[in-house]
């Protein structure tokens, strides 16, 4: 599946077994500085090339989210966030990418509301 240009967070299902992932495992990958990363629940960062992510033999892309998708979802779930400036919400999402283990968009929202706002 083609990854859209404005996508910053994707959910993928692994189609292979390796030292770091098992077949069928769902991973949340985020994009920072044009690099796709996944933080394991033990804190280790794994880097994934976009051509590998798009290869159906390795990963099945389940969902894609742009920064706008994430922020609008956050504002929908937590109306208090509607009073926060947009760029501050972007910073909160990027900080969450750097600090938290993520698997779903709900993980992003939960981390932001518990730790950053």
Describe this structure in words.
This protein has a five-stranded antiparallel β-sheet with strand order 4-3-2-1-5. By secondary structure, it is an alpha+beta fold. The chain has four helices and five strands. Helix 2 (67-77) crosses helix 4 and helix 3 (86-99) crosses helix 4. It has helices spanning 50-53, 67-77, 86-99, 105-116; strands spanning 7-14, 26-32, 35-39, 45-48, 59-66. The protein is globular and about 45 Å long. The chain has two domains: 7-66, SH3 type barrels, CATH 2.30.30; 67-116.
Detail the topology: elements first, then pairings.
Layout: E1 7-14, E2 26-32, E3 35-39, E4 45-48, H1 50-53, E5 59-66, H2 67-77, H3 86-99, H4 105-116
Antiparallel strand pairs: 1-2, 1-5, 2-3, 3-4
Helix pairs in contact: 2-4, 3-4
CATH architecture heading of the largest domain? Roll
What is the strand arrangement across the widest sheet? 4-3-2-1-5
Strand content: 25-35%
- CATH class category label of the largest domain: Mainly Beta
Order of helices and strands: EEEEHEHHH
* DSSP strand tally: 5
Largest sheet: 5 strands, antiparallel
Instruction: Please state the overall shape, judged from the principal axes of the Cα atoms.
Output: globular
Terminus-to-terminus distance: 34 Å
List low-confidence stretches: none
Q: Bin the helical content.
A: 25-40%
CATH fold assignment of the largest domain:
SH3 type barrels
């Amino acid at each position: 599946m083609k990854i859209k240009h404005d996508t910053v967070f994707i959910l993928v299902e692994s189609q292979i077994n390796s030292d770091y992932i098992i077949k069928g495992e769902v991973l949340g990958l985020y994009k920072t500085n044009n690099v796709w990363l996944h933080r394991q629940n033990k804190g280790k960062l794994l880097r994934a090339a976009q051509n590998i992510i798009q290869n159906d033999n390795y990963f099945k892309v389940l969902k894609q989210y742009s920064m706008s998708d994430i922020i609008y979802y956050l504002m929908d779930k937590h109306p208090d966030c509607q009073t926060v400036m947009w760029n501050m919400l972007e910073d909160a999402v990027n900080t969450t990418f750097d600090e938290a283990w993520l698997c779903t968009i709900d993980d992003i929202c939960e981390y932001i509301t518990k730790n950053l706002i």
